[in-house]
Recover the amino acids of this structure.
């Protein structure tokens, strides 16, 4: 047992002890290097240095590398920086941009448009990345929302259903790719067996340029829609039952009730699930690498993530690989920065 | 209530369960198909639909059931499995510990700039691995002094030269795991009673005493969530391993799995499926045992 007088004396002698719960803002506290920050530094500084060096430091270094013409031999030449890689990446902007939406001239590496360039611009893989991201995210959210609403309607074995829907999320991209390669297999794959029952096929789905990206998106939806369900389910549980009842009293049908009353209240959940899912899509490299057994998924399924690793690690075109990495980083930033800022504004940071 | 109302209510209920079960089948079928295929002998594999279990009685001598694919898969993945375990345990513990420290340092005291530092931590969660790959590769292959630091330990019986590459992976995964761990812990620490911590402060407890005596013991459930999440992340990663370790002695399980079955003549699906399931087993076990905590981890 501590002597109360001694405790009181300590309080008086220790200027940092605040009897009123910390609302006194002393002059020293206003400075960045206040006592609090110094005292807590041993805790947050070591992890911050690790993150600062390995994540943010590496991002900055990567930007520098993208300005060189480093090709893996010797050391990068940092005295000769220019944006040439970006000029190449976004060469032929009009045709290239249109080609992202399947319009404009034939602009896949094979066409002579870019014959004077040693490397291909990024338009094709950028288009595929955006298509995959948008398609995958939209279906993922829709399936997740539907599942969440169904599971939330007081069903029995709710835990079992939830567990099953989320199960694929625990698998790695590599394992998912192995399973779906088998599902898509033209001879014995379940998808083709089912299609065969309807008199269609067999179709070599994974090899078909028109279906490649859809096949990837479908497998990713299988893996991650359970995640969207869990996010929506948490949000649905947060809506007061009075909202459901009020809509019920108004005589709204179930569908109308969800569409008009409940879904609009799920905006926050949608945004946070969307951010995570889109970032998953940006990272889908692991999946494509295992699906196509290497860095070459072919032009119709080539996304920025595969392109980047191929340029750097297979073609030894390190600087161009870094350039594509910067483009990926900027895309992630465009998705995440508004999200983090809005979290900050709502005081959730 | 009229009987037609009752009937339509029951019909709705039946439809609801039918959809739920149908969706459950959608999520389970690829895994079950893999499982059934992985325990088939070559004869029953060619003779049966892939999504059906070996239909003959489950006895090896009838010839339809075989554990041979699992045996071959284990031989093929043994090195990768061992390396993955060497990698995942320290990487998980370190990122969890650092995350908890960062979250505590950024929560228990009010100083300006705290939110800014924290925002940097949070944003780190979303940075694509690709954005750091080339510098990291450069870094790990050029930091010779650090490699030399590791050399004395290479004399120990269990330490091999290639473990240096795993150390590189451990540090990388730890750094990349800290942001998400910090986020998870901070959400938890904000909920911890301020009164208790304030009381301890007034009693003269130092910042580190409060952490060790009060905060750390109260974080045990959160450590479970963080460890499960990080374990899955690190175990499942391919990209860092592929670029930092590349192939060789230090290959992790995802790398070994990519190649399995592909090099074999034809398409040996029983072997491939057994290997996929074997590589997925640790995370599947973690998920099935601690499903709720896993869900908590992925939704925060």
């Amino acid at each position: 047992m501590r002597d109360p007088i001694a405790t009181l004396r300590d309080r008086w002698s220790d200027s940092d002890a605040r009897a009123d719960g910390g609302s006194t803002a002393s002059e020293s506290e206003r400075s960045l290097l206040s006592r609090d920050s110094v005292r807590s530094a041993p805790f947050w500084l070591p992890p911050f240095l690790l993150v600062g060096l390995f994540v943010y430091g590496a991002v900055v270094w990567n930007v520098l590398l993208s300005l060189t013409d480093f090709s893996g031999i010797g050391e990068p030449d940092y005295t000769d920086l220019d944006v040439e890689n970006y000029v190449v990446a976004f060469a032929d902007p009009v045709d290239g941009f249109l080609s992202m939406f399947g319009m404009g001239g034939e602009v896949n590496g094979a066409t002579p448009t870019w014959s004077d360039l040693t490397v291909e611009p990024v338009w094709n893989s950028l288009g595929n990345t955006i298509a995959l991201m948008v398609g995958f995210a939209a279906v993922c959210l829709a399936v997740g929302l539907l599942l969440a609403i169904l599971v939330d309607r007081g069903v029995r074995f709710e835990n079992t259903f939830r567990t099953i829907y989320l199960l694929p999320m625990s698998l790695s991209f590599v394992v998912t790719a192995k399973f779906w390669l088998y599902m898509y297999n033209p001879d014995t794959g379940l998808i083709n067996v089912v299609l065969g029952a309807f008199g269609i096929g067999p179709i070599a789905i994974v090899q078909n340029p028109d279906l490649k990206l859809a096949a990837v998106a479908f497998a990713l939806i299988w893996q991650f829609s359970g995640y969207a369900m869990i996010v929506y389910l948490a949000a649905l549980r947060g809506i007061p039952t009075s909202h459901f009842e009020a809509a019920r009293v108004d005589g709204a049908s179930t569908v109308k009730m969800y569409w008009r009353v409940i879904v609009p209240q799920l905006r926050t959940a949608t945004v946070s699930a969307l951010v995570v899912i889109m970032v998953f899509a940006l990272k889908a490299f692991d999946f494509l690498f295992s699906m196509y057994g290497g860095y070459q998924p072919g032009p119709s399924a080539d996304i920025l993530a595969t392109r980047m690793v191929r340029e750097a690690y297979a073609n030894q075109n390190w600087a161009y690989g870094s350039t594509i990495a910067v483009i990926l980083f900027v895309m992630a930033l465009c998705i995440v920065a508004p999200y983090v800022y809005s979290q900050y504004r709502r005081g959730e940071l | 209530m009229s009987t037609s109302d009752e009937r339509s209510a029951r019909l709705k209920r039946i439809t609801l369960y039918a959809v739920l079960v149908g969706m459950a089948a959608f999520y389970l079928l690829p895994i079950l198909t893999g499982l059934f295929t992985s325990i088939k002998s070559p004869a029953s594999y060619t003779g049966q639909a892939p999504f059906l279990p070996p239909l003959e009685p489950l006895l090896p001598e009838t010839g339809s059931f075989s554990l041979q694919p699992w045996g071959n898969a284990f031989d093929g993945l043994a090195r990768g499995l061992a390396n993955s375990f060497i990698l995942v345990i320290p990487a998980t513990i370190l990122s969890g510990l650092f995350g908890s420290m960062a979250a505590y340092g950024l929560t228990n005291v009010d100083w300006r700039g705290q939110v800014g530092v924290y925002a940097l931590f949070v944003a780190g969660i979303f940075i694509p691995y690709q954005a750091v790959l080339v510098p990291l590769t450069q870094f790990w292959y050029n930091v010779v002094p650090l490699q030399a630091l590791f050399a004395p330990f290479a004399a120990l019986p269990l330490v091999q030269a290639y473990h240096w590459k795993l150390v590189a992976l451990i540090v990388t995964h730890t750094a990349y795991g800290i942001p998400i761990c910090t986020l998870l812990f901070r959400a938890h620490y904000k909920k911890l009673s301020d009164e208790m911590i304030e009381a301890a402060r007034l009693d003269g407890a130092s910042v580190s005493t409060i952490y060790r005596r009060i905060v750390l013991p109260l974080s045990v459930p959160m450590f479970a969530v963080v460890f499960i999440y990080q374990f899955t992340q690190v175990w499942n990663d391919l990209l860092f391993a592929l670029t930092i370790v590349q192939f060789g002695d230090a290959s992790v399980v995802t790398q070994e799995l990519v190649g399995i079955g592909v090099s074999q003549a034809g398409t040996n699906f029983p072997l491939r499926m057994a290997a996929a399931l074997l590589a997925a087993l640790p995370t599947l076990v973690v998920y099935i045992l601690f499903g709720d905590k896993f869900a908590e981890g992925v939704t925060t």
Q: What stands out?
A: Chain B touches chain A through 104 residues (CB under 8 Å). The longest helix of chain B spans residues 68-105. Chain B is about 75% helix and 0% strand.
